[in-house]
Amino acid sequence: QVQLQQWGAGLLKSSETLSLTCAVYGESFSGYYWIWIRQPPGKGLEWIGEINHSGSPKYNPSLKSRVTISVDTSKNQFSLKLSSVTAADTAVYYCARGGVTYRLHMDVWGKGTTVTVSS
Amino acid sequence: QSVLTQPPSASGTPGQRVTISCSGSSSNIGSNYVYWYQQLPGTAPKLLIYRNNQRPSGVPDRFSDSKSGTSASLAISGLRSEDEADYYCAAWDDSLSGPVFGGGTKLTVL
């Protein structure tokens, strides 16, 4: 059974860099897209970006200048870095598995990491 | 401001049928598949419906969806208390070259 386990710092100050990692257990890393989604308090879902096993990332244009998504296939892990955070980046961050053809087929999710940015 | 538009809330009594709408544009719903996610309180979203009314294993056939033009709808028949959750629609957006989501609809079972 595929599981995603995510971790990272939950409390940041403005201008710091958010760093989260998601480990994939029970499934080959190849053949899927690995996705980051966030959900601000009381709000909807926002796609941050994605990466495939070969390491080709794609980012939401609204965040592109601050986001880096990378993959470590030797550890079956992928990571998110978001620089220069502000209070607007306060959210629950999820990692998810998307299909190779249909990325929105996100059938496996991490439990989420709450990130709070204080000024 | 979400790209896809959903009503913020919906409600129904046990056994009723409720529908949740999702409105988009030609660059997303109008030209791509619609997906629906269910989010129970305090948990991660769960894939509920995908690509023309298909359901992952374990999702009851009380859940169904439909699409017409640039709008889609999720229908839940035989409403049950455990259906109380937030529901999100999503679609690939050709202009963004990425996925877009609705703002979510909070379903209350009265």
Mean pLDDT of chain A equals: 94
For the report, how would you describe the main beta sheet of chain B? Answer: 6 strands, mixed
> Helix and strand succession of chain B?
EEEEEEEEE
Uncertain runs of chain A = none
- The amount of beta strand of chain A, in percent, is over 45%
Which radius of gyration of chain B do the C-alpha atoms yield? 13 Å
How would a textbook summarize the main sheet of chain A? Answer: 7 strands, mixed
- Outline type of chain B: globular
Distance between the termini of chain A: 41 Å
Overall shape of chain A:
globular
Average pLDDT reading of chain B: 96
Please state roughly what percent of the residues of chain B sit in beta strands, choosing from under 5%, 5-15%, 15-25%, 25-35%, 35-45% or over 45%.
Answer: over 45%
Tally of helical runs of chain A: 0
For the termini of chain B, the CA-CA separation is 28 Å
| Portion in helices of chain B | under 10%
The total of helices of chain B stands at 0
What gyration radius of chain A follows from the Cα positions, in whole Å? 13 Å
**Multimeric state of these chains?**
heterodimer
How would you describe this protein?
The complex is a heterodimer of chains A (119) and B (110). Chain A is globular, with a radius of gyration of 13 Å. In chain A, strands 2, 4, 5, 6, 9, 10 and 11 form a 7-stranded mixed beta sheet that branches. Chain A has 119 residues and is mostly beta strands. Chain A has no helices and 11 strands. In chain A, strand 5 (46-52) and strand 6 form a beta hairpin. Chain A is 0% helix and 54% strand. By secondary structure, chain B is an all-beta fold. Chain B is 0% helix and 45% strand. Chain B has strands at residues 9-12, 18-23, 34-39, 46-49, 63-68, 71-76, 85-93, 98-101, 105-109. In chain B, the strands form 2 sheets. In chain B, strands 1, 3, 4, 7, 8 and 9 form a 6-stranded mixed beta sheet that branches. In chain B, a hairpin with a 4-residue loop joins strand 7 and strand 8 (98-101). Classes of the chains: A mainly beta (119), B mainly beta (110). Chain A binds chain B through residues 37, 43-47, 50, 58, 60-61, 94, 96, 102-107, 109-112, and chain B through 2, 33, 35, 37, 43-47, 50-51, 56, 88, 90-92, 96-104.
